Amino acid sequence: MANKIRNFIYYPITFLILFTVISCHEKHTVYKTDIDNLYAIKRDIQDKDSIAQSIQDKTKRALNSKNTKKDAQLIDSVIDVLRWTNEKKAFLKLNSIAHDDAIQQNDQTRLANTYHDLAVFYHDEGQLDSVYYYYLKAENIFKKNGDSLPVAENNFYQSRLLYELGLQMESEVKLSKSLKILQDFPKNPLLIEAYQLMSLYNIEHGEFDKALINLKKAEKILQDDEGKFEVLPRDKFYLAYSALYANISFLYIETKEYSKAVEYSTKGIEYIQYNYTDLGFAFINLEHQLAQHYNGTNPDVIGGLLISYNLFDKLKHIFFQADTAKIISNIYSELGDKSNSLKWAWTSYNLAKKDKFFKKQKEAIELILLNDKDYPTPALVKELIDLNKVLEVEQKETREKFAKIEYETFLLVKENQSLRQKIAVILAISTVVTIGLAFIIFYFRLKNKNKELFNLNIQKSKNEKILNLLIENNNIEHKSIQKERNRISKDLHDGVINSLFTLRFNLQQMDSANKEMQQLLIKEIVNLEQTVRDISHSLAKSSLLKNKSFENLLVELVNKQSNNFKTVFTITLEDDLSFEHLTTLQKVNIYHILQETLQNINKHSYATKCQINVTSTNDKIVFEVKDNGIGIKGNRINGLGLNSMKERAQAIKADFKIISKINKGTTITLANK
User: Fold this and answer.
1) CATH code for position 561
2) How do beta strands 620-627 and 665-672 pair?
C-alpha cells in the first residue's frame, strides 16, 4: 500500500516558496518574523543573479555610505536581499558593517539579526555547520535579552535544519521547545509550520491522532486568517493553505482514508490556483494523484505523476525529482509492470547519485534489488553496504560536529557571562568611586557656591541699605530744600513785599515838586513788588526747581554700563515725569530690577544696542528695556536672576513682562501701579 510505495514524503511549507520581504530596522531594531526564511527554497544561479541585479543601485549606495549608522535601514534592507544571491563579498561586507554598528550602538536585536542573516546565507551555500553555529549565536543574544518569540523562531529554524540532516531526535527536541513558546503567539506564522513539522514526528511514531490534531490546529489559524491576511500576506496565504492540505491528504493516505485524502488534495488544488506557482502545484498534484489512485478514481496515475516530475525537472529540483521517480517506480511495480518499475528506479538512482543525495541513492538501490532479482547484484549490494556506512558515518560526524558547536557556543556564552560579571563589578566599583569623587567635588563646589551666595547676599543687603540711605537722604534733602523755599517765600511775601508796599504807599502820599520822578519811582516799586511776589509763589510751588534725585540715579546707572560686546546703552525719560508718588520701597525694587536687567544684558545678550525708555501711561510709570541680542534660551527663562526680578515686581505689585525671540532680542517691561 502507500507505506510500501514510499517511506514518507513530508512537504513542509518551509521548503516551498520564497518571496523577498525587506525588513526595516530602526536605530534600536524592532524584531520581525523573517518570512523570507520561513518560506525559503534553494535557488539556481539565474534566480540569484536576477535578485542581485534588482537591487544593484541600492547595494552600491549601501557600500558607499559615508554614515552607516544613519543609513542602517538601507544597509539592513540590502542585506536581507543579498543573502539569497551569489554576491558573497558585498553581503559579508555589509553584514560586517551592520554587526560593528550594532555593537557600538548596543542594538542587541540588530546584532542577533546579523548572525541570523549569516545562518540563512550559509544555508543557501550548503555550509550547514556554519548555519547551526550562527543560529546558536543569535539564540544566545535573544535569550540574554529575554526575547521569547525570537528564541522560539530561532529554535524552529534549528529544528528544521536538524531535520534536513536526519538528526530527528535532536530536531524534535528543538521543535518542542519552539512550540511551547509559540503557543503564546497564536498569530505567528511559524506556528503553522511548527504544527506541520510536529505532525511528521507524530506519524513516524505512529501517533496519527496527534498528527491530525496538529494539522487541524494549523488549519484553524489559516481559516481564521482567511480574508484578513493578518498572519500571512495574501500571496503566501494561499500557498501555505495548499501545502497544508497536501500534508493532511498525505496523513489520510497513511491512515487509508482515501476519500478524505482526495477531499483535501482537491481543496489544495483549488487554493493553489489563487496564487499559482509551478513548485506549489507540483507538490499538491503529487498528493492529489496518489489520493485518487488509492481511492480507485485515477485511471492515469502515471500521467498525473509525470506532471509533477516534469515540473521538478523544469525547476531543477533534483531531490524532489528523484523522489518522484521512486514513487512512479513503486506505482509501476504495484501495477505489475516490472520493466517500467525498474526503469524509473534506475532514473531515481542516477539522479540521486549525481547530486550525492546518499539517502535517496540508497532507497533507489533497494528498489532496484527488489524489482530485479535476476540482475547481477554484487556491485549494487556492495554499493548499498557502502552507502549505509557512509550514511552512518555522516550522521555520526554531523551529530558530533553539531554537539561540539553547541558545546563550544555554550562555553563561549559562559565565558562572556563571566567576563560581563567582571566588567559589571569593575563598572560598579568605578561608578561608586566616580560618584564618591563627584559628591566630594560637588560638596566643596556647593560649599564655595553657598559662601559666594552668602557674601553676595551680604553685599546686596549692604547695597540696598546704601541705596535706601541715598534715596532717604535725597528725600530729606528735598524736604529741607522745600522747607527752606517755603520759608524764603514766606519771608519775601510777609517782609519784603509788605515793606515795598509801605514804601510805595508813603511815596504816593508825599508832595513832591517833581511829580514825574515821583510817578516813575512808584512804577518801579510796583514792578519790584510784582517780581518779588512771583519769586515767592514760584518757591512755594517748587516750579523753579525739580527733585531730580531718582531720575539722576537711573541715568547714572545706565551711563556706567559697559561690556565686551560694545553695547551702546541709551536712556530716554518722558518730559515732566515725576517720581514723587513712588515710595522708597518701590524705588529700591525698581532700581534693582533695572540693575539686574542690565547685568543680564552685559553677561548674555551679545547685543549691540540697548534702549531704556521711561514713560507714564494711565497713572502708571512704565520702564522698558529693549536690546537686539540673541534672546533668552528656554532653559534660562526661569533662571535665578529673572525669578528674583519677578519676585521684586510682585513685592511692589508691579506688572512684569518678558518678550524674547531667539536672535531677535529681548524686551522687558515693568509697569508700576
Assistant:
1) 3.30.565.10
2) antiparallel
CA pair distance 227, 234, nearest whole angstrom: 8
User: What is the 3-state composition of the chain as percent helix, strand, coil, each rounded to the nearest 5?
Assistant: 70, 5, 20
Rg over CA atoms, the chain:
50
Asked whether residue 513 is assigned to any structural domain, the reply reads no
pLDDT digit string (tens) for 471-502?
A: 566 556 556 665 666 666 666 555 566 666 66
Find where cell 549505509 sits.
Answer: 388
CA distances from 272 to 89, 176, 246, 499, 617 (A): 37, 30, 11, 134, 87
Confidence band, pLDDT 50/70/90 cuts, at residue 468: low
Say how many C-beta atoms besides its own lie within 10 A of residue 394's C-beta: 15
16 pLDDT higher than 60: no
Is residue 474 a part of any domain in this protein? no
In a domain, residue 601? The reply is yes
Find out whether 527 and 570 touch, Cβ atoms under 8 Å: no
Range of the domain at 573: 550-671
Question: Does pTM top 0.85 for this prediction?
Answer: no
Report the alpha-carbon angle 485-491-496, nearest 5. Answer: 130
The total domain count for the chain is: 1
Of the candidates 413, 414, 402, 392, which has an alpha carbon nearest to the alpha carbon of residue 131?
Answer: 402
* Contacts (Cβ under 8 Å, ≥6 apart) of 471: 549, 550, 553, 584, 587, 588
